[in-house]
Amino acid sequence: MIIVMNPEATKEQLNMVIDKLTKVGLKVHLSEGSTRTIIGVIGDKRFVAELPIEAMDGVEKMVSVTVDYKLVSREFKQEDTIVDVAGVLIGGNHLAVMAGPCAVESREQLFQSAEIVKKCGAQFLRGGAYKPRTSPYAFQGLEVKGLEMLAEARAKTGLRIVTEVVDVESVPVVSAYADMLQIGSRNMQNFQLLKTVGKTNKPVLLKRGLSATINEWLNAAEYIMSEGNYNVVLCERGIRTYEEYTRNTLDLSAVAAVKNISHLPIIVDPSHGTGRWKLVSPMARAGIAAGADGLMIEVHPNPAEALSDGKQSLTPENFAITMQEVSNIGKIMGKVFI
Amino acid sequence: MIIVMNPEATKEQLNMVIDKLTKVGLKVHLSEGSTRTIIGVIGDKRFVAELPIEAMDGVEKMVSVTVDYKLVSREFKQEDTIVDVAGVLIGGNHLAVMAGPCAVESREQLFQSAEIVKKCGAQFLRGGAYKPRTSPYAFQGLEVKGLEMLAEARAKTGLRIVTEVVDVESVPVVSAYADMLQIGSRNMQNFQLLKTVGKTNKPVLLKRGLSATINEWLNAAEYIMSEGNYNVVLCERGIRTYEEYTRNTLDLSAVAAVKNISHLPIIVDPSHGTGRWKLVSPMARAGIAAGADGLMIEVHPNPAEALSDGKQSLTPENFAITMQEVSNIGKIMGKVFI
Amino acid sequence: MIIVMNPEATKEQLNMVIDKLTKVGLKVHLSEGSTRTIIGVIGDKRFVAELPIEAMDGVEKMVSVTVDYKLVSREFKQEDTIVDVAGVLIGGNHLAVMAGPCAVESREQLFQSAEIVKKCGAQFLRGGAYKPRTSPYAFQGLEVKGLEMLAEARAKTGLRIVTEVVDVESVPVVSAYADMLQIGSRNMQNFQLLKTVGKTNKPVLLKRGLSATINEWLNAAEYIMSEGNYNVVLCERGIRTYEEYTRNTLDLSAVAAVKNISHLPIIVDPSHGTGRWKLVSPMARAGIAAGADGLMIEVHPNPAEALSDGKQSLTPENFAITMQEVSNIGKIMGKVFI
Amino acid sequence: MIIVMNPEATKEQLNMVIDKLTKVGLKVHLSEGSTRTIIGVIGDKRFVAELPIEAMDGVEKMVSVTVDYKLVSREFKQEDTIVDVAGVLIGGNHLAVMAGPCAVESREQLFQSAEIVKKCGAQFLRGGAYKPRTSPYAFQGLEVKGLEMLAEARAKTGLRIVTEVVDVESVPVVSAYADMLQIGSRNMQNFQLLKTVGKTNKPVLLKRGLSATINEWLNAAEYIMSEGNYNVVLCERGIRTYEEYTRNTLDLSAVAAVKNISHLPIIVDPSHGTGRWKLVSPMARAGIAAGADGLMIEVHPNPAEALSDGKQSLTPENFAITMQEVSNIGKIMGKVFI
Fold it and tell me: Whose CA is closest to D254, among A252, B51, C36?
């Protein structure tokens, strides 16, 4: 942490800042420049964060030089984490694909989807039983019935189930049915929910918030891990920008960034990330080429009949083509479907 | 709702779209242009939203011409809503100010704050007992102890208490102490929480999400109102943009927009909105001049000692000046402190 | 300037950085922390900016603690600048309003507009003779004919003329007719154009770029001033965000920020800033309350007949009301129409 | 174009709108809904754009259903355009790489760079002779001397030269030396410059504006093409968002989008797009996987000595690795270096 004093700061003001820092056990190094003095603070950054330094007289600003999180960082753990989801591995040289309809709508729709997903080589069936929706009047999901159908589909196909948990209350029931708990974008900073899934032993798929910085996202993962659950997989799903052609702007540089900063696996959701099925396959390829460990893709036996997000869902034919393309890129990246 | 067909759409594709619409009871009007056909859909928009029209062959896009929400809209209720918070009114020709520290830190800090707030003419004491924080290692609030102190401060000063409720679990306990429940930015789309406060009889202060559109914000209010609680006050607190000088970009045009679209009262938080105490007073004045019904301002007896957000808190002296300035602007706008 | 070394940086890497800095005459102060070393650099920041420090081995990042510009800053000049535009003053306790149609369309339209503008007490007539348009097929302005009409309108009414100069070539001709040269948003970083108007003796109105930071905007003003023309007035006109209800997001906190950082006058354009005439009056009031020195407003004798931007233009009646409201707020702010 | 009337619009208001449209030769189709009437407009959209429909009484909004540009669109030209730059082809199954230093700094630096670029198989040498810089005090390029050095490097290596033209004045001199003219981000809507390069016979590389929509970008290309120069290559280089980890957010979905909408070739600049050399290689791979026709990459013989952008430049070693990786992805995409 660095504290930059005003050009007009007095000696007394400087001393008061130094006092405040040293009182809590921090050490300081001074750099006296031609126009201003800079204080380098040495010690646990969290202590500084708690102090109201920036409101003190004579202080211009405080600059952070280290990060907040610890458990998620590569400095904490050098080697890539590989998350085991009921026997299927995510991370390392494994390529994982989670596919299925946006929402579970009916047994028939789900089972048809599951068959397609299985046939094309993906390992996970996705499908929302609980759907967070902007309007209170929109379809909110089949809830427990949807969970039961997902479990049935697993029994039939052997696919692992990943599905969203939208609130603290439903963590137990979703955990009872799913192999992996998904935290959606809107809940990325629902800290109570993060802590709750952090206390389960289920692997967690943590989607990036609609306009979360990479730093906030990693801190959200830290919330989960700080409760003891280290099985976290990140999912880039597009951020909110001014661009209107796409539903969101898929930020693939976040994939490369996360690979540098953290040891956690990361996958990409090109369906929500673009909102247009024609862009799904190019962005799926690009995601893997950027270094992602897998994909989450919306597939529907008949997108034109989907109750939600039909516009961004792939047909079975296009999904098969996408899987082949992704597999080819994956091989070059040293990642394969197992 | 309007459906725009592709230039290459066939007659069969057009008929399939029309079929799908008429089957659920909607009516259609066709406009056949020189290059493409446009379908005007007549009937309840929600039915269309449920249909996967955009995924059908031949469809280029679907354009919404009406909005999702109903109860929050001025079309539903023409006259301004005035919310009664334990006898203090928000909306109409009333000017409401909620002030106090970011977080409740100690009995002394809170009581000193309350005295300042009271003395300067504000009607509400704000202060966080539960604090949602980006990092799991940051100060998370005094919780129930903080609530007790807030209630004590109310007993001493007669100020109304507004404080944040961060999860479903704590709604009962916060409701037991507070006069008004605040939903913070990060929870604006925590739908379970919205529904839960919608079932209480406490007035709700709904902050705009970090990067929520006005439309999403009003839909969040609709979630609360659709459960029966009509006492909702909106709070603009800045949106996330690329600008780095300010913590957020305070969007005062949202105040004017909300006044056009909705009957609900709206206040402005220039403290979080700018993140710099020097900008608080100008933006407080501007907010009232834009038509806001009140303000939420961070005040601290000694900002340099604050455990959080000291940088954006006003000193007692500056708060007194701000209140005077705001009062002057308020008079011109026909709004007074009562 | 502060240089933060990696935790793994070697002594040799540190020495190479120090060498590079001292060779160009800079001084360094070291802060050796528990995990990393920080170098405080003392001397002219521009020298550091030229050095590729961040690409050197062992360097994690470089943090700027001072700003790039000089002439625009309040540190350079304490007192408010007042710009004299052919006898009308902008800045200090003067309230300036520039009003008129988006584009000069015809003699009749312009003269009617000028009369309204004059009658309501504004001092400047605005109107585009050269129009930068997104599409090459849209109306691009009447050019020299438009300038002639503007000069005629000045002769009739005594209003000062402010109009946009869109390229280097037309600076002489626009300067021959106008009292003040406007640099539009799209040209805020057209550096050749900035330098060219910097060499004239005409006052310049510099609009903020569509997504320019305050820092970039002030640097653009510095380009003009560094050529010798100190008569620069800034104009906040909204920035690009994800919000779709308004055409842009009018950033009034930039007004307060500029007042802190710079001595230059600043006005607000609520017409382009919101894109909706219903929001113009509230945001005009708010702009003045935030501390702006004036306004730029689109007025049209008959908005429904306007060739461009009719949607955001005020009718004569609404402009008269707005001027009254603005005047009332101005008085409280100690600013009056002269 | 669709016009949506207010629910309260009168029959007279509707008729006035229809009148205005039919007078200029447009045809209308009415859809009378339960709450409002919608007018479908048939005919040349540009006529409608010129009319101030949205300011007319009774009109709620106008919705565009077709795009502004023509020459750039795939509807206008189905097959991919292949641009010939002095014998090197961009587009189709060709993979083009433009590499070199951000700025031409010295003969030695440039020639070393050119050798590396040539040796690794790229076909174009890039390097700025004119540098647009945020601050007037930053290094602005060697100008004509830089151009001469670029031409010398071409003579030595056979590489094609692509370099930026920053204003209308320098178009002739840059055209005399360069094989391809680059329009930088800040000039994407410098319409006079676009028209000027549109009148030359030099191929143009058009970078996306800092916060340009895809639609605005394609319209900028339309400006060039509407002057007769059809040899336009687009370059995605990152857009401005709230994310602070990367310098910009590289929007690879724009590559896939452009491929759908337009026939023009598109390349990706991962150096400016990310601002961090560690992210260049992953994003180069991802760009090609998304369907791009090539790359623009900053390479410097010694990034730590670069006068600008050293932080994002690749070393010769890393560039060689990147070229190999890109070549592997290119093969899968059916694109090869020729």
Answer: A252
Domain at D22, CATH number: 3.30.70.1140
A158 and A246 together in one domain:
yes
Could you say which DSSP state residue B207 is in? Answer: E
Residue A33: both structure tokens together? 């420049």
Q: Specify whether B46 is located in the same domain as B193.
A: no
Residue pLDDT, tens place only, B205-215: 999 999 999 99
Instruction: Please state the φ and ψ torsions of residue D57, each to the nearest 5 degrees.
Output: -60, 140
Instruction: Give the Å distances, CA to CA, from D285 to C45, D202, D288, D323.
Output: 36, 29, 5, 9
Is D38 in contact with B40 (Cβ distance < 8 A)? Answer: yes
B29 & B92 share domain = no
Lowest mean pLDDT among A104-113, A212-221, C310-319, D110-119: C310-319
pLDDT top residue among D262 and C43: D262
Of C33, C35, C244, the CB nearest to A40: C33
What's the length of chain C?
A: 338
Question: From the CA of D190, how many Å to the nearest CA of chain C?
Answer: 7
pLDDT for the residue numbered D49: 62
Number of domains in chain D: 2
All residues at 6 or more sequence positions from D262 whose CB lies less than 8 Å from its CB, including other chains: D72, D73, D74, D218, D221, D234
At D44, the pLDDT band (50, 70, 90 cuts) reads: low
Asked if residue A72 belongs to a domain, the reply is no
Judge if C35 and C103 occupy the same domain: no
Return left, alpha or beta for C58; rule: phi > 0 is left, psi -120 to 50 is alpha, else beta: left
Contacts of D273 in chain A (CB under 8 A): 253
Nearest to B241 among D7, D40, D242 (CB): D242
- DSSP string of A42-84, one letter each residue: ES-HHHHHHS-GGGSTTEEEEE--S-S--TTBTTT--SPP-EE
Per-residue pLDDT tens digits for A40-62: 777 666 666 667 787 788 888 77
Give the minimum alpha-carbon distance from B289 to chain C in angstroms, rounded to a whole number: 5
Question: Residue B139 domain-assigned?
Answer: yes
Q: Would you write out chain A's pLDDT as a tens digit for each of its 338 residues?
A: 778 888 888 889 999 899 888 887 787 877 776 677 878 777 666 666 667 787 788 888 777 656 678 899 998 899 999 999 999 999 999 999 999 999 998 999 999 999 999 999 999 999 999 988 888 888 788 999 999 999 999 999 999 999 999 999 999 999 999 999 999 999 999 999 999 999 999 999 999 999 999 999 999 999 999 999 999 999 999 999 999 999 999 999 999 999 999 999 999 999 999 999 999 999 999 999 999 999 999 999 888 776 666 688 999 999 999 999 999 999 999 999 98
| Whether residue D112 sits in one domain with residue D252 | yes
Who among C133, C186, C216 is closest to D134 (CB)? C216
- Count of Cβ atoms closer than 10 Å to residue B174 Cβ: 26
Q: Which chains touch D (3 or more CB pairs under 8 A)?
A: A, B, C
Nearest to A83 by CA among A232, A262, A296, A287: A232
Q: Does A306 sit within 8 Å of B55, measured CB to CB?
A: yes
- Chain D's closest residue to A247, CA to CA, is D253
pLDDT tier at C44 (50, 70, 90 boundaries)?
low
C50 and C103 in a single domain? The answer is no
In a domain, C69, yes or no: no
Cβ neighbours of B42 in D, within 8 Å: 31-34
Sort out which chain B residues have CB atoms less than 8 A from D43's CB and list them: 34
B48 and B157 co-located in one domain: no
Looking at the structure, do residues D173 and D306 belong to the same domain, yes or no? yes
- Judging contacts by C-beta atoms under 8 Å, the chain B residues touching residue A210 are 211
Q: Is residue D77 part of a domain?
A: no
Task: Out of C28, C63, C98, pick the residue that ends a domain.
Answer: C63
Find where tokens 């592997």 sit.
D328
Q: For residue B76, which residues of chain A lie inside 8 Å, CB to CB?
A: none
Range of the domain at D14: 2-63
Calpha distance C293→B1 (Å, rounded): 44
Residues of chain A with a CB closer than 8 angstroms to some CB in chain C: 2, 4, 7, 29-36, 38, 40, 42-43, 60-61, 63, 65-66, 75, 211, 240-242, 244
State the pLDDT at residue C190.
95
Choosing from C35, C63, C91, the residue where a domain stops is: C63
CATH of the domain at C181: 3.20.20.70
